[in-house]
Design goal:
Radius of gyration: 22 Å
Low-confidence stretches: none
Strand content: under 5%
Order of helices and strands: HHHHHH
Number of domains: 2
Structural class: mainly alpha
CATH topology of the largest domain: Arc Repressor Mutant, subunit A
Largest sheet: none
Mean pLDDT: 89
């Protein structure tokens, strides 16, 4: 993978700084966690290779979180179904659960359609001959 090679090209301190940026809120805290100065981290954040490594690490973290959310999604849907089918659950709660479930389903459908359209556009652009200026 490209991001692995990018990260490997960084020094150990830069690799620690990338990890620290993902685990802290502020640049100052990330610099302290990585054992470098804030100025050094700001300087690295202007270097394309370092920025690419940070973005790759963020993408990897988001992929991992997405996988976790998919697993949790099954539990969440089962919980909603259980509440909706439980005779002791108040009707207002059931209606709210149904509304949330349907709303999320529609959002998911819209996102899937948008992703499909984006992929089609990307494929069309990739097939189009490059125009020189």
């Amino acid at each position: 993978m490209r991001h692995d090679r990018t990260r490997e090209a960084l020094s150990p301190k830069q690799q620690r700084a990338v990890a620290a940026l993902l685990s802290t809120v502020e640049v100052k805290a990330a610099a302290a966690e990585a054992g470098i100065s804030r100025d050094t981290l700001h300087r690295w954040l202007k270097q394309p290779l370092f920025v690419e490594a940070v973005r790759a690490a963020e993408a990897e973290a988001l992929d991992e979180l997405s996988r976790l959310l998919v697993r949790l999604g099954r539990t969440a849907v089962a919980t909603i179904a259980k509440a909706m089918n439980d005779s002791t659950t108040p009707v207002a709660t059931k209606i709210r659960a149904a509304d949330v479930a349907l709303g999320r389903l529609l959002q998911l459908r819209e996102l899937a359609q948008l992703e499909g359209r984006m992929q089609a556009l990307e494929a069309a652009v990739a097939q189009e001959p490059r125009k020189t200026r």
